[in-house]
Amino acid sequence: MSERELRRNLSILPIGTVRELTLLTDRQIRYYEQQKLIAPGRGKGGQRRFSLNDVDRLLEIRDFLDAGDSIKDIQEIFAKQRRKAQEKQDSEAALRRSLQKNSPNLDDSGLIKKGQSWLAKLLPKKKLSKSWQTKTWSLSA
Question: How many CA atoms are closer than 13 Å to the CA of 98, on its beta-carbon side?
Answer without folding.
Answer: 6
